[in-house]
Amino acid sequence: MTSTETKTLPAETRVFAIAAAVAVALLGPVSLPIPFAVQVTVLAAAVVVLGLPHGSLDPWIARRAGLYRRGAGWVGFNLAYLALAGLVLLAWWFSPGPALALFLGISAWHFSGDWDGRLAPWQRLLAATALLSMPALFHPQSVSDIFAVLSGTAGRAVAEGLRIVGMGALGGLAVVMVMAARQKQHSVFIELGALAVLAAVAPPLVYFTLYFCLLHSPRHLSSVFRQAAPEERPGLAVDATVYTLATLALAGLIAFFALPGADLGRLGLQLVFIGLAALTVPHMALMYWVERKQALGT
User: Fold this and answer.
1) CA 250 → CA 74, 125, 135, 247, distances in Å?
2) Which residues are bridge partners to 119 per DSSP?
3) What is the rounded CA–CA span in Å between residue 173 and residue 177?
4) DSSP of 83-95, one letter per residue?
5) Rounded CA gap, 14 and 118, in Å?
6) What is the DSSP letter of 119?
């Protein structure tokens, strides 16, 4: 773990901390109620605009890492990506409870990358585990209801398991924060502290929206753009837009066939989270392959 910290906080740290402070101010003392349908609508819109683009750059990452080089390789990569996403959807259809639990575990590993290079691996994983489990600890009924929409009765069992994990993870998060403060990792301390307070005060969907769209996604996007040469960046922006629109069109097609008789709030929640699960698995598989390739120096 590095012990140096830049004098200026990263932009995403500042934006997330300010947004979290505003949310806490509005939702804490005032206890401003937010209808569930409004939460789902804001979540869906924020994920489309701010969340999905960070996974839309995967084809560029794959090509840069040597996974494919020409047009045929691009087609093959996209077909494999879609096939893996389809397998996730099938797994969720036939075994929604285990699929949800597996998705949470994979997400903990994926989100731990937000502190890569600033925390030790065990600290990153502990922070990400706390990140995912704190809402279930502070808002058990809300998380249970959300998971029931996603995975039926089995989802409530997963929510209870996550709540139990949160009891230990919260203590571990405190340890990580103390270590970060002692090592002058100011941005880490601010981010983790903001996450903890936000998880305690805000509804789970508001919490996830702010984290995913204002911290996780911008951090990944900025990392990719820094790796790209200046002349490549306009193309990256186009790729992100095209892939995001294609994903949105596919979600719209699914919604069109599922809409008759469906509850809009439940359908929106399912489209966002199950859709994210389907896209996250191939995204993480690619990230793992790239990291292994870099570690082996090939």
Assistant:
1) 19, 33, 30, 5
2) 116
3) 6
4) HHHHHHHHHHHH-
5) 17
6) B
